[in-house]
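REVIEWER CHECKLIST
Item 1: Sequence provided? yes
Item 2: Single chain? yes
Item 3: Sequence as submitted:
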Amino acid sequence: MLDKLNNIGDDVYQTWSYEQKHDEIGKLVQGFKNGLPVQILCHLCASIAGSNALAAEHLAAFLSKRERKAIVNRESGNNPLLRDLLESTLLK
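Item 4: Structure as written out by the authors:
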């Protein structure tokens, strides 16, 4: 039951147009710049876009490759799991 609640947004996001998804991801990027944790940015962007790869495409429109690489390096530290998440969402 809890798993279904965790994915409830995914069903809603599938009904959104590309533009709606793009706009919402843009808002999340602004939130990140104002303090939203990067893990939340990545998870929500992937949910909204439909995959990490699609999220990366949207994020590339809002953050330069240099910015995205800096985020991965700064935020992941020595945590390989976090680095994998960030790279798959920010750099693919």
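Item 5: Key structural point noted by reviewer: Residues 2-90 form one domain.
Item 6: Recommendation: ____
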